[in-house]
Amino acid sequence: MLELWGLFVSAFISSTIAPGGSEAVLAYMVAEKVQPIVWLVSVATVGNTLGALTTWWLGYMAAKKYPVETVLDKNKQRALNWVKRWGNWSLLFSWLPVVGDALCFAGGWLKLPLFFSVGLIFIGKLFRYVMVAYWFV
Q: Contact, 93 vs 63, CB < 8 A?
């Protein structure tokens, strides 16, 4: 049970502004058959989704204080433009390294609908972790 908490924390941290390697943790746990794969993928997905929602919330809060165009660096500007163009659907790509966090931040900054955002972020994260688990079974 303790290993599931470790996976959850790793997945959560990996999806916030802090760097992390939850895919490596999941791959190891799947390969070592620490817990059933369904549990491992579920815990990683929920943790990573909650971390992404933390980043989304940070973007939401930042929008209240800072104008969008004047504060962001070029990388985040690209993510912001992508989210402006594709809306919530861009959050399906929140699983991508580096860009995914920026997409979630931009989604919050643009005040995209929360529940639709959660659903799309969850689907993207689930897809990634299912693929990682599949590769290491």
A: no
Confidence of residue 70 (pLDDT cuts 50, 70, 90): low
CA dihedral over 77, 82, 85, 89, signed as positive or negative: negative
C-beta separation of 14 from 25 below 8 A: no
* Number of domains making up the chain: 1
Higher pLDDT, 124 or 97: 124
Q: Scan for tokens 């997409």, then name that residue.
A: 103
Alpha carbon 37 to its chain centroid, in Å, reads 20
Largest CA distance in the chain: 48
Q: What is the DSSP string of 50-116?
A: HHHHHHHHHHHHHHHHS-HHHH--HHHHHHHHHHHHHGGGGGGGTTSTTHHHHHHHHHHHTT--HHH
Tell me which residue has tokens 């994260």. 125
**Full residue range of the structural domain in which residue 26 is found:** 2-135
Q: Which helix (H) or strand (E) holds 20?
A: none
